[in-house]
Amino acid sequence: xxxxxxxxxxxxxxxxxxxxxxxxxxxxxxxxxxxxxxxxxxxxxxxxxxxxxxxxxxxxxxxxxxxxxxxxxxxxxxxxxxxxxxxxxxxxxxxxxxxxxxxxxxxxxxxxxxxxxxxxxxxxxxxxxxxxxxxxxxxxxxxxxxxxxxxxxxxxxxxxxxxxxxxxxxxxxxxxxxxxxxxxxxxxxxxxxxxxxxxxxxxxxxxxxxxxxxxxxxxxxxxxxxxxxxxxxxxxxxxxxxxxxxxxxxxxxxxxxxxxxxxxxxxxxxxxxxxxxxxxxxxxxxxxxxxxxxxxxxxxxxxxxxxxxxxxxxxxxxxxxxxxxxxxxxxxxxxxxxxxxxxxxxxxxxxxxxxxxxxxxxxxxxxxxxxxxxxxxxxxxxxxxxxxxxxxxxxxxxx
Length: 399
Fold this sequence. Notes:
The protein is an alpha/beta fold. The protein folds into three domains: 2-72, Rossmann fold; 84-271, UDP-N-acetylmuramoyl-L-alanine:D-glutamate ligase (3-Layer(aba) Sandwich); 280-396, Mur ligase, C-terminal domain (Protein-Tyrosine Phosphatase, Chain A, Alpha-Beta Complex), CATH 3.90.190. 30% of the residues lie in helices and 27% in strands. It is built from eleven helices and 23 strands. It has helices at 8-21, 40-44, 73-81, 98-106, 137-150, 186-194, 246-262, 299-312, 335-345, 361-365, 375-385; strands at residues 2-6, 25-29, 50-53, 69-72, 89-93, 113-117, 120-124, 128-131, 153-157, 168-171, 178-179, 184-185, 199-202, 213-215, 220-223, 226-231, 234-239, 280-284, 287-291, 318-324, 349-353, 369-372, 390-396. The strands form five sheets. Strands 8-7-6-9-5-10-13-14 form an eight-stranded mixed β-sheet, with helices on both faces. Helix 1 (8-21) packs across helix 5 (137-150). It starts with a strand and ends with a strand. GO terms for molecular function: ATP binding.
């Protein structure tokens, strides 16, 4: 078949490689930088059997008006895998909580497996990171082939939807935002794609009425640091102090419910520990650093990170490093949200990170702050001014 793969930046090059291995004729177009094998103008002059485009591409783009069979990058995952698949697959999507849920579930599944997350591709049970990969659909193809080769399971964290190869599909949050040139709702896209999975699980607090949906709160419940579960005649409970943090509570509850659905006891989640970049607390001399710098950092997680730090050092000053490294993240951290975090938490000092923010940001925030370009610079500056204080890293970035 003659296939056009659109958007080489977000996994298109990887998808085209798998298609070429299958013997297809492939053209690639980079709609952002023009680095594909052909230009947009050249592609418009040709006739294709399939055009594979990311779901976030503006539907008004000229390449989306051609006469051809259209498939999303997500749909190209099963196309590239053919009839082979891992022993079982869990696909996870949502605006937040994906990485923590994925790692929590992977930490308790028996046997060998492959985890694709924002950390990269990790082999289990050794927890060896095999390489850095994005969470685009193209990376799911790579991770699935590795799981197939080892005969193990696959857990795949995916952005903006799932491929549908999942034995279980999980929605970790239903927070919505516009994408595809502001013409599509991300929450609707994710829910629509999840319906192609064999079984679907919604995390606590998600309102989604469909007879095919299982809700985590119907399987597990939490009170303080104790999680109790009951599913198909089996029941139990476990304790983990992370359950006292909202972000971890939802993720651990969801992972526990997923384990139950897959037929495994979730009780080993009592040993699950905080992930780097996700409210991980580290002593720094007489100070403590709360690391909440990751791709899912938001107004809510930043506020929780400050509150968490104050439970560790209640009377100490708080130095808030906040912002977004715009060059490597799709969704930013707006000044409106940052201002809300500052007004809510009232830190002793603010270090704003991000070259995308204007020079007069300090006046817009109505709060004195230092403005630096990178997370690394912000962290180092905070360490120089913190003496027996709390340093909170709340920078939206890809790590």
